[in-house]
Amino acid sequence: MSLPVSARFVVVGAGIHGLSTAYHLARELRLRGLGSGEDVLVLDKSHPGAGASGIACGVVRNNYFQPAMSELMQACVEVWESDPVAYHYNAVGYIALGANVQEPDLAETFERQERIGYRSELIVGADAVDDHMKAIFPDWRAQGVTVCLHEQQGGFAFNLDSVRGLVGKCESESVTILSGVEVLELEVGSDDSVHAVVTDRGRVEVGEQVVLAPGPWAKRFWSMLGLPATIDIHLPDGEVVRDRPMWTYWNLQEGEIRVDAALFATADGGAPPVVHLDTDAPLYTDDGRLVTDELWGIYYKRDRNGVQGGASPLTVSDDVVLDPYPQTTNVDDGFADMWCAGLSHAMSRFEGCRPAYETARSGGVGAFTADNFPVFDYVKPNAYGIFDSNHGYKMIGVGREVARVLAGDRSDLLYPFRFGRFESGDLHPVSHSPYPWS
Ligand SMILES: Cc1cc2nc3c(=O)[nH]c(=O)nc-3n(C[C@H](O)[C@H](O)[C@H](O)COP(=O)(O)OP(=O)(O)OC[C@H]3O[C@@H](n4cnc5c(N)ncnc54)[C@H](O)[C@@H]3O)c2cc1C
CB of 383 closer than 6 A to ligand 1? Predict the structure, then answer.
């Protein structure tokens, strides 16, 4: 299909956010009698799911210490639950287990979940946690775990399948999605709004608004708009941190063991919840080598071909090469040993699983903002940016909120993620988790 010369709404990026926005916007326009999906054009330089959304482990959880993240996540889970078939969503739940130091954070998260009506359970104390886990997985044997937040909602979705589900929903609303169209420039007029997107296949005039949902390519779009590479961050106590880079990169380390998927089942043979284990118990490989005696963590879920998961990310240099995406070469050499040792530490069924580890198409780079939380905001008068700071496969509902904003409404859920928070000091609280995304 040829590139149209203009479109009322142009969405750049066909990942989870661009597609969810396009679908919900088309719906919103139709239901309000303001237009239809024919007014919405999605452009992707590769194809739907070519970016982070197509590589994500797919974990959907609400274990967020930050109130705004938690409330937004509840809305996102609502979207996942609205059509589990199309989104290939597995509502198996999610379990977060932590060491002593994480107890207050998880307790606070649980209390908020209770208040907002997100179904979960908190178990405190080493013995109680052990009992809870053994009832689900009789061979549970993790040490140093004193707190467990068991979310009955959430779980995981199959990454590329859910992207295809969104493509189907877009098509059902007559949205046009064009693959193989790379945006090279954004033409900004004297009124500071984006007049056109310039691509390698021609120029598209923007009738009303443009949505930028570029995933890890955020920095490129930030600089196309002439936005600052470094910013000052005003902390809530009045202190100012000067010249902080707006974008940094982390490499998300993930892998899988190829085993019969049925090996990872609950005591009654059911589908297991996603497990996230953090502990400060010393970690040894199955042949007795010490991996670490500091706080460590892994997460894992049942996949079609076995068990998939990851561990803490690694920082990568500023001049990271993103194309072709994903690049997994900078995963720590010791990752497979560590992750498999962690699996075996958690459950005896995984003892000796290291030879089953496979280098698969998993792991990749994420672009993080100056405070590691998303920026969802207008970055030009008619250009809305969805920069999720790598939080976001699970955030399928952000597109629904953005669609409402594009249609003229305000979103209380997105407001805490405005760019202006860096100047006003309305930052999100930071947890004790070793992960930059918790
Ligand atoms: C290894 C890994 C595991 C993860 N696991 C999870 C998880 O379990 N749960 C979770 O919630 N999140 C997870 N994340 C984070 C999550 O994947 C991302 O936050 C989310 O997918 C970003 O979605 P997006 O739509 O913004 O970007 P993307 O999915 O990256 O989509 C951006 C699209 O923009 C296109 N594009 C880029 N530049 C241009 C251009 N110039 N012109 C046209 N098109 C362009 C790309 O081709 C791409 O298709 C993980 C991330 C990684 C890397």
Answer: no
**For ligand 1, is residue 13 a contact (CB within 6 Å)?**
yes
Distance from the Cα of residue 213 to its chain's centroid: 13
Q: Name the residue with tokens 């995984």.
A: 350
With a 6 Å cutoff on the Cβ, whether 154 touches ligand 1 is: no
Are residues 393 and 348 in contact, defined by beta-carbon separation less than 8 angstroms?
A: no
Q: How far is the CA of 53 from the centre of ligand 1 (A)?
A: 4
How far is residue 302 from each of residues 58, 158, 184, measured CA to CA in Å? 11, 11, 39
Task: Indicate the fold that domain 1-90+155-238+371-438 takes in CATH.
Answer: FAD/NAD(P)-binding domain (3.50.50)
Distance 239 CA to ligand 1 centre (A): 33
pTM of the full predicted structure?
0.97
pLDDT in tens, 90-119: 999 999 999 999 999 999 999 999 999 999
Residue 368 phi, psi (nearest 5): -110, 140
CA distance 314 to 159: 22
Q: Whole-angstrom Cα distance, residue 19 to residue 166?
A: 6
Contact (CB, 8 A) for 24 and 222? no
Which secondary-structure segment (H or E) carries 9?
A: strand 6-12
Residue of the CA atom closest to atom 22 of ligand 1: 215
Cα–Cα dist 375/392, whole Å: 11
Task: Grade residue 39 by pLDDT with cuts at 50, 70 and 90.
Answer: very high
Q: Distance (Å, rounded) from C-alpha 64 to C-alpha 323?
A: 31
For ligand 1, whether the C-beta of 57 sits within 6 Å is yes
The answer to whether the CB of 436 is under 6 A from ligand 1 is no
Token pair for residue 321?
């090469």
CATH topology of domain 94-152+248-368: D-Amino Acid Oxidase; Chain A, domain 2 (3.30.9)
Length of the chain: 438
State the average pLDDT over residues 2-18: 98
Cβ neighbour number for residue 332 with a 10 Å cutoff: 15
Domains in the chain: boundaries: 1-90+155-238+371-438, 94-152+248-368
Closest residue to atom 50 of ligand 1, CA basis? 56
Tell me, using a 6 A CB cutoff, whether residue 16 lines ligand 1: yes
